[in-house]
Amino acid sequence: MIVEASISGLFRTVLILIGAFVLLRFLGQLMMAKRNMKEEKKINYRQREFEKERSQKLRNFGKVNIFQKSTRKSAVIEETQDVEFEELD
């Protein structure tokens, strides 16, 4: 089989390469836009959580809460034991 170089074949190859390059650039831009939208959603979520926590703290600012002492915590403290360790050479 003999393959001959022609102007139309060269032109077609160049167009295919340019088309592939443009397609890859478009897909790259699309993926970057998608990533930026995810980042923006994450930042907005953090901002809303921060504002919610801030408003809750401002609402409770200056109020006094009295909690009863938990008997469960003291029982856990009494049940703990000391463990002796030996040094290894």
- C-alpha geometry: elongated
If you average the pLDDT, what whole number results?
Answer: 86
Largest sheet: none
Q: List the helices and strands in order.
A: HH
> What is the tally of beta strands?
0
- What is the helix content? 55-70%
Query: What share of residues are in beta strands?
Result: under 5%
Q: What would you note in describing this structure?
A:
With about 90 residues, the protein is mostly helical. It has a domain at about 35-60. Helix content is about 70%, strand content about 0%. It is built from 2 helices and no strands. It has helices at about 5-60, 70-80. The termini are far apart.
Give a topology summary.
Layout: H1 7-59, H2 71-79
Q: Which features would summarize this protein structure in a list?
A:
elongated, 0% strand, 2 helices, mainly alpha, 70% helix, 89 residues, single chain
Short description:
With 89 residues, the chain is mainly alpha-helical. It has helices at 7-59, 71-79. The mean pLDDT is 86.
